[in-house]
Hints:
Layout: H1 31-47, H2 57-69, H3 75-83, H4 89-98, H5 101-115, H6 129-141, H7 145-153, E1 157-158, H8 166-169, H9 175-187, H10 206-213, E2 231-232, H11 261-264, H12 268-276, H13 284-297, H14 317-329, H15 334-342, E3 370-371, H16 374-385, H17 406-415, H18 429-437, H19 439-445, H20 451-456, H21 463-474, H22 481-493, H23 500-512, H24 515-518, E4 519-520
Antiparallel strand pairs: 1-2, 3-4
Helix pairs in contact: 1-14, 2-4, 5-6, 7-12, 9-10, 13-14, 13-15, 18-19, 21-22, 21-23, 22-23
Amino acid sequence: MAGKRFWLVPSMLFALAAGNVAAAADPARPAMSARVDQLLAEHWAHVGVKPAPLATDAEFLRRVHLDLTGIIPNVGEVRDFLADIRPDKRARLIESLLARPNHAAHFANVWRAIMLPSDANVQQFGGSGGLESWLQGKFVENTPYDKLVTELLTSSGNAGQPGPTLFFTSLQNKPEELAASTSRIFLGVQISCAQCHDHPFDHWKKEDFWGYAAFFARLTKPVQGQAFVNQVADADTGEVSLPGSSEPVVPRFLGGETAPSEMAANGRRTALAQWFTGKQNPYFARATVNRVWAHLFGRGLVDPVDDLGRHNQPSHPELLDELARYFVDSGYDLRLLIRTLTNTEAYQLSSEMPISGDTPPELFARMAIKSLNAEQIYDCLKEAMRQREAVNPQAQFGQFGRAFDQNRQLFLSRFEAPTQGATEFQAGIPQALTLMNGQMMAQATDLGQSDLLNALDAPFFSDSERVEILFMSTLSRAPAEPERAQFMRYVETGGPAKDRKKALGDVLWALLNSAEFILNH
């Protein structure tokens, strides 16, 4: 197939060509998708930028699988999609992926990573399985996002049970930590700098921070000899004060408005949740839209994604405003928002860099190349290897929970890198060595352990078919003819060991260690 190809050498991406698909003509996509494209096209025309061509079917297939389910498609899915001639097949694929359980599992994983501090020792509370299980259930049901956040903000109970209370206990129920975290995650506002002094770049002051923190002041605190830190519950009393003062601070919403007494009568956290999800809230919908946009496009309309403010204006203000209104009017339908954005031409652009030079990333005139996180790499390796593990029902957590996977945890402990942006490559020497020489890679390319290589040993496969299946299993595409010819010669000669079977393992190793495999493009 014609289209952009990546030579199988990490960090060296060579664009050969670009295909074109008339996805824009698809009548099934939401009207708001066309509006998004219109606003972006007007901006491109204004600044004199030509967007990249549309991604090929194979590129789109792999991208949307990774973004919506966190995992690459299998060989059958690749063959079926590439052979499909229906003009609306991309919209159909999006709909199919949104309905899959692993879509809910992936977004539960994404939101869990956003919500829990990277340095939190959640194992002392029984791990993050209860929170993930709760999130996954909400995404399966497509619970309106305002209702999801309301349930989280007002939750009570034990951190070890399925539910959102781990969010509070991971921050030790501290009002100042919860204020900084909830404002950043759900409002896209960084107010932590105003905890001890007025914000140096934005307009937030100490009074704003502690007035907001006062909504969490009545959460139960640990008592000597008792494990109340594992519980999330509201006490009848509890206040916060400005640093250096003993005078209690009245709960105030961001922006300065004091919580009305009738709202606070039902509990401070309930009052905060009502303000959070009110249609007049200037932050909630914009922050959510911006975060979903960043997940799909590699960066937000406001970047960094959790720093909306007067000092950091959006690259496309009208687009962000219209998407926020659309999200509110939809009843905070997160799945509809994802469907709308993935059906845009902008999302379906190639990531190919123009010969004349790259365009500024904030224009979204081409798709950003995104790094897979450690969990995605592990899951994609398992899918490419066709590795299936027996399920232990007793190890599962809740209705939607994932069984504990010791191999997975070991891989993640070795591969995880410090948090960076989605478009920043995270792997260093330890991660590269894990991919090249780790236990999982050894199993994948070992003839005695690899399910995929054993399946390819069947006599009815030709070497050309074997090479093609390896490409589809790993890169979700057929090899270009030069690639096919080069790898066939290697397999036919048996490589350095003069062993055809081992040569197939070498080809699989090269594909799994390629830049194309560990990047989402």
